[in-house]
Amino acid sequence: MSAITDLTLTGIADAIAGKRISSREATEACLARIGAWQPHLNAFIAIEPETALAGADAADAALASGQNFGPLHGVPLAHKDMFYDAGHISTCGSKIRRDFAPDTTSTALARIKTAGTVRLGTLHMVEFAYGPTGHNAHFGDCHNPWNVAHVPGGSSSGSGAAVAARLTFAALGSDTGGSVRMPAHFCGTTGLKTTVGRVSRAGAMPLSHSLDTIGFLTRTAEDAALLLALTAGADDADPTTLGGPVPDYMAATRGTLAGLTIGIPSAFYVEDIDGETAQALDATIATLTRVGAKVITITLPDQMQLSAASQTLLAVEAAAIHLPWLKDRPDDYSSLVRARLENGLAYSGVTYEQALRWRGPALQAHLAAVAGVDAILAPVCPTPAPTLADTDVGGAPDAEAAIQVITRFTRPVNYLGLPSLVVPTGRTASGLPIGMQFIGRPFAEDVLLRIGADFQRNTDFHLAAPELPA
């Protein structure tokens, strides 16, 4: 069973299509692993074995009769519990939507389902996707599979933990302030945050209409390319999506680092990082250079201003979305999420408008600064995963300060709407993963996937899997 769950998304898809492994065998292997790990991780909100096995049997029967539903025929997957699936409960990690069954399916999920997948259940998340750690007062905290005392990252906490622990071959996530990239870094997976407008957000629970993006937690850059190829493109239900042809992302993963130029920021992203993160950054630079990339130092505009503007947009837009429930059901929020939402009501319209209007000039200044590079390399976070106890707001005196630290390097990317790919790049002496992010130009996910795939051909950090706790 473990040999099956160790396969990548593309690997299991090929094995099922070639009838070397049945969809039932793959699904049973995932369910067995979920059963063993769930008591330790709390990575799932709902586990649906009957639905999964029925879907697997249907996929096997179809394949036996000569029908292939698509590139992911019979592959069992689970996703963050904020992607609406018509007729299925979507809690959004909240008490308010504990029994919510939407009548529509999110576009991103629908496109993946159309490719032939089998539903395993739904993955844990921070309440309404508003938090970076994995704490959840309604469904219990999610845990890091490398050390269950530590955070898995958020808000796509279950997606990061489940992919790392080999409970699902991949998972959808969302990234508004780092919610795909932090779980990827803390849990040792590959994580792709897409450009705003690259993947439809229709039918995915909103948090911030100008910052929300859809992303993927996977084992490899190649797996992320496959999911992006399936989901990217225009959608009438989301007028912010980009029309026109979609790049060949799978072909991009066959490219190499040779001839590419990678920029290392001279400040901000390299300041106040812990020693092991600094060592991982240096080792990553060495690998890039050895494989054929040119690495240079670049100077970026003030990233603290970008981060502050991002927090303003998030606070105000989240408060606006939740205002009806804040009025009618305030006690159904956890105290932490309610406080974050109410904070957004305190901003003036002028402050919000200034943050919104500045995005264009800020992006123009950024693009001018990176004109000579194909991507930026930077840490995802100044540290490896902190503990759940140290980031428990209300339980630890310095928790808010710790949370500000872990979101420091992710928010500027959201404000500018840029794509970013996280790949595992090392481990601490205590065994916690360390990831780095490659930040690209708008809609240049193909370049990031090329970089990530070749980096992973030349390293083995992404192959490591955690051991089941005793």
UniProtKB/TrEMBL annotation:
Q: Which SUPFAM superfamilies match?
A: Amidase signature (AS) enzymes
Q: Which GO terms describe its molecular function?
A: catalytic activity
| Residue span(s) of domain Amidase | 25-449
Please give the InterPro entries that the UniProt record associates with this protein: Amidase, Amidase_CS, Amidase_dom, AS_sf
Known role: Hydrolyzes indole-3-acetamide (IAM) into indole-3-acetic acid (IAA).
The name on file for this protein is Indoleacetamide hydrolase
